Amino acid sequence: MFGILKGLGITFRHVFRKPIVFQYPDEKRADLAPRFRGELKLREIMGEDAAGSRVQTDAMPPCMATCPSNMKIREYVGLVSMGRFDEAIEVIKEDNPLPLVCGRVCPHPCEGACRRGERDEPVAINPIKRFAADHDLKMHLAGKGFKPKPKQTKNQKVAVIGAGPAGLTCAYYLALRGYPVTILERLPVAGGMLAVGIPDYRLPKDILQAEVDQIVALGVELKLNTSVESIDKLFEEGFGAVFIGVGAHKPMKLEIEGEDLQGVIPGEEFLMDVALGKKTAMGKKVAVVGGGNTAVDCARVALREGAKEVYILYRRTRAEMPAHHIEIEDADEEGINLVYLAAPVKIIGKGSRVVGVECQKMELGEKDKSGRRRPVPIEGSEFVLDVDTVMSAISRTPQIDWLEGSGVEIHSRWGTITANGKTGETSRPGVFAGGDVSLGANIAIAAIGGGKRAAFSIDAYLSGGDIKEAHIPRPIEALVKPLLNVDESRQEGAKLGADERKKSYVEAELGLTQEQALLEGERCLSCETRTCIGCRICEENCPTNSITVRAGQDDKVRRIFTWDLAGDTCIYCGICVENCPTKTLYHSHKYELAEHVYSNFSKHKDYLLRDKSLIEQEGWSRPHKHVDTMPLLSADKPRKLTNEGWEMKVEADEEGQVES
Ligand SMILES: Cc1cc2nc3c(=O)[nH]c(=O)nc-3n(C[C@H](O)[C@H](O)[C@H](O)COP(=O)(O)OP(=O)(O)OC[C@H]3O[C@@H](n4cnc5c(N)ncnc54)[C@H](O)[C@@H]3O)c2cc1C
Ligand code: SF4
Ligand code: SF4
Questions:
Q1: Are 101 and 211 a contacting pair, CB within 8 Å?
Q2: Which domains, ranges and CATH numbers included, belong to the chain?
Q3: Looking at ligand 2, which residue's alpha carbon is closest to its atom 4?
Q4: Is the CB of 486 under 6 A from ligand 3?
Q5: Ligand 2 cavity residues, CB under 6 Å
Q6: Which of 106, 397, 460, 479 has a CA that sits 20 to 30 A from residue 81's CA?
Q7: What is the DSSP-derived secondary structure letter of residue 45?
């Protein structure tokens, strides 16, 4: 109770506290062109009272906004940095019931958006998630792990078709909201492509099973070896709503001569057979066609299954390969031959068996709609690889012929279910869909996000709520993280060497140690918390060295002693505001007139800011070296100014340029 009151108190103070306003002296230097001044404000400074608490906000940090399941990354990373692992897993599971899985296989689009990456390297978000999830698993094994409980019991039954990440997630959040849920799964195992696609050395099956077990423990009924072929039948059986999460399991064909020969295997089928312990039709020399995760997994599994020579044929270059770059590096290290700018044109047979694949070299032409350069065949460049097995791993589409006539609309071009990306609604009321079946072949966290949002929509549908509002992740909690690590570089977990890796299916990535997880969590910049954390990024980026921040931390909390701006050298570029990760620093739009008159900038803002090597060359580097203030606006185009107190009013010039 005390904690809640304290939290509310902090939230109110946060909302109503008056910002600290920096004022500037009047224009003193006669030799400068007129400049315009607005206000620069610092909304809030982190102090000991708020440190470690959570406040409500509407602003999303870039990591959260980019995550397909909008995970509260800033919060769980912050909790891990403080050693509050049990709370971290609770926050994680609010948006993702499969963190053990995702912590191992997620290609982490969040890290691509992480603002820390603009300074040095992104926060290792996914390894931190894995650390928290692994810690919780250890707690579970000791009988103490996080066990959420459904809040109330509801009567309407929900059917979930498919036990992949989309279906498992949908079932988890529905069960937590009190619905009796039945998952119907065609295969003898749960997990979808996580179980029968991703190999064990990346995702051990006992790890996946641990999370499936936790979902089943909520009271979810899991019916394996049960293929659904009619939606109507499910409604007749009394289900009030249906979620379709059947993935995309139909491999796309290469559409070249020789595809019916013995030794041509769809990559997904090969991986599924290995995962289910079945005999495969693979020989000793294997060519895998494709550039995504499936292609790389097929090649690496082929090696572990005894192939002597393995090739990946990809029609673009390594830079365009959609597979995760670490997987590509690992494959390379393990001895897989990566053949770029090559496309198969014919599979060569002897009798009924494959004996080779004829390929054509490619070059990159104009960009296509996806923004990638189109591969263009080079005439007369054909060459032959002697192989006895060709695996196609170019893409997959859903196997949903059984939905014909069900009232669920199917996209005529992609063969996917047409579903609302935010709510999961399909064209048939009461039927929802998410994951690969509506997105096409995608990634696990996108399926998890789809399953979660659909669960919220199904709850709204069954309880008479507003489906459109059900998914909106606002307001969100912002953790005021007391510790910050501005100097430490990204922590990397240990990994088995290539020689050891390629011999077995033992998990290759070992994750972060506790010490590394704590350090890495401190690297997070608490983006969008509207509270200055004393990171000194404003100071670091100010092109005229006009800002001085004095900050430091003891082992409990970071303190900001002074935040100083030299008004006589400030050139009003607004770069400090642009780069403040917490967005505590802001200016009235009158402040940054410079942005409207780029031509009058003696250096373009992007030039000043982003290419640090150029900045160094030009002598704009640390340690503090004050440069002369530059005139930003040319004197021959004066603007009309009126000064009301210290806030300046600006009117449009002849060209109609005003601040936006
Ligand atoms: C080889 C490979 C490697 C991958 N690597 C990664 C990776 O590293 N990182 C990542 O994030 N993603 C990866 N992915 C993609 C990821 O696995 C998928 O995006 C994700 O599993 C999709 O989840 P889903 O729930 O939509 O479908 P699926 O996981 O495909 O699950 C669908 C389930 O529905 C069942 N089903 C189908 N039809 C029926 C029916 N009629 N009745 C009952 N059940 C049915 C299926 O058997 C299956 O179990 C990979 C995929 C593959 C194939
Ligand atoms: S620094 Fe932290 S809050 Fe900001 S984007 Fe990266 S992980 Fe998210
Ligand atoms: S950039 Fe960092 S130090 Fe500067 S105001 Fe923003 S949070 Fe504070």
A1: yes
A2: 2-49+531-650 (no CATH), 57-147+476-521 (1.10.1060.10), 157-248+398-470 (3.50.50.60), 253-394 (3.50.50.60)
A3: 527
A4: no
A5: 61-63, 73-74, 77, 114-116, 123, 125, 524-527, 581
A6: 106
A7: B
User: Tens digits of per-residue pLDDT, 271-290?
Assistant: 999 999 999 989 999 999 99
Question: What is the pairing mode between strands 264-266 and 494-495?
Answer: unpaired
Q: Pick the residue with more confidence: 304 or 366?
A: 304
- pLDDT category of residue 589 using cuts at 50, 70 and 90: low
Any ligand 1 atom below 6 A from CB of 55: no
527 alpha carbon, closest ligand:
2
Q: What burial letters (b/e) apply to 380-392, b meaning 16+ CB within 10 Å? A: eeeeebebbbbbb
**CB neighbour class for 440 (10 Å; exposed up to 12, middle 13-18, buried from 19):** middle
Sign of torsion over alpha carbons 317, 321, 325, 330 = negative
| pLDDT class of 229 with cuts at 50, 70, 90 | very high
Residue that is written with structure tokens 């978000």 in the block: 125
pLDDT in tens, 419-472: 999 999 999 999 999 999 999 999 999 999 999 999 999 999 999 888 887 776
Identify whether the C-beta of residue 50 lies closer than 8 Å to the C-beta of residue 531: yes
Phi/psi at 541 (5° precision):
-95, -10
What is the per-residue burial (b if ≥16 Cβ within 10 Å, else e) of 566-592?
eeebbbbbbbbbbbbbbbbbbbeebbb
Ligand located closest to 539 CA: 3
- Tell which residue, 114, 110, 115, has the closest CA to residue 126: 110
Test site for ligand 3: of 480, 538, 570, 609, most ligand atoms within 8 A of the Cβ = 538
For ligand 1, whether the C-beta of 330 sits within 6 Å is no
Q: Ranked by mean pLDDT, which of 48-52, 185-189, 363-367 comes out on top?
A: 185-189
Q: pTM value? A: 0.85
For residue 97, give the DSSP letter.
Answer: S
